């Protein structure tokens, strides 16, 4: 006689069989629902990764030249300073050879400025502007001379942006208010140049 002969055969009633099938069906439905959710999350993560990569690619193309452009601004500043040191009368009276050099420096400065602009580098507009700590760096407060407090009086160094990011803040002097401090300058305290 075999060992299994002593065991009674397991009888399943139709009700118990239906209940097991119902439980299996519910378990399978829950598993399908969980897998659908995981699938949707994976698709969303893929889409987010694609968008992030696209944004990074766009940033890289727009801002790849940032460090180089910042260095070239120093060259542009030196060319402008060199041209500014020669009064127009001296330029007119200069010998032909000196005039040719000056014209070459002027052409180089114009070409450099045009090249910077072609690559998204633009000067910050500061004429009669209100001080903006996101774009300007106040280096001094000066008497208002009829300008409203907090207004830019003079630009010491031109500021630049590349695309929509600040490349270099404009260094400015601002009109002093009636109480001795400029309005809207909380992040850049002015320094007295007298010392």
Q: Mean pLDDT, rounded to whole units?
A: 82
Secondary structural class: alpha+beta
Q: Compute the gyration radius: what is it?
A: 36 Å
**What spatial form do the alpha-carbon principal axes imply?**
elongated
- Tell me the quaternary state: single chain
Strand content: 5-15%
Provide key terms for this protein.
single chain; 195 residues; alpha+beta; Nucleotide Exchange Factor Grpe, Chain A, domain 2; 3 domains; three-stranded antiparallel beta sheet; three-stranded mixed beta sheet; 6 strands; 15% strand; disordered C terminus
Describe the 3D structure.
- Mean pLDDT is 82; it is low at 180-195.
- The radius of gyration is 36 Å and the shape is elongated.
- Helix content is 50%, strand content 15%.
- The longest helix has 50 residues, at 14-63.
- Helix 2 packs antiparallel against helix 4 (96-118).
- The chain has helices at residues 14-63, 66-84, 88-93, 96-118, and strands at residues 121-123, 136-142, 152-157, 160-162, 165-168, 170-175.
- The protein has three domains: 14-63; 66-119; 122-195, Roll (Nucleotide Exchange Factor Grpe, Chain A, domain 2), CATH 2.30.22.10.
Please sum up the structure shown.
Helices cover 50% and strands 15% of the residues. The protein is an alpha+beta fold.
Question: What is the strand and helix layout of this fold?
Answer:
Layout: H1 14-63, H2 66-84, H3 88-93, H4 96-118, E1 121-123, E2 136-142, E3 152-157, E4 160-162, E5 165-168, E6 170-175
Parallel strand pairs: 2-6
Antiparallel strand pairs: 1-4, 3-6, 4-5
């Amino acid at each position: 006689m075999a060992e299994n002969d002593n065991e009674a055969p397991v009888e399943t009633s139709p009700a118990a069989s239906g209940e097991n099938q119902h439980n299996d069906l519910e378990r399978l439905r829950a598993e399908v629902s969980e897998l659908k959710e995981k699938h949707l999350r994976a698709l969303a993560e893929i889409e987010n990764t694609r968008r992030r990569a696209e944004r990074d690619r766009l940033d890289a193309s727009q801002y790849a030249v940032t460090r180089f452009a910042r260095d070239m601004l120093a060259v542009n500043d030196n060319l402008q300073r060199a041209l500014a040191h020669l009064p127009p009368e001296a330029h007119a009276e200069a010998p032909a050879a000196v005039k040719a050099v000056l014209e070459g420096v002027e052409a180089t400065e114009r070409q450099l400025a045009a090249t910077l602009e072609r690559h998204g580098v633009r000067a910050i507009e500061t004429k009669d502007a209100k001080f903006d700590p996101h774009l300007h760096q106040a280096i001094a407060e000066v008497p208002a001379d009829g300008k409203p407090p907090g207004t830019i009086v003079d630009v010491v160094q031109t500021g630049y942006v590349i695309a929509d990011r600040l490349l270099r803040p404009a260094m400015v002097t601002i009109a002093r208010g009636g109480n001795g401090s400029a309005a809207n300058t909380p992040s850049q305290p002015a320094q007295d140049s007298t010392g």
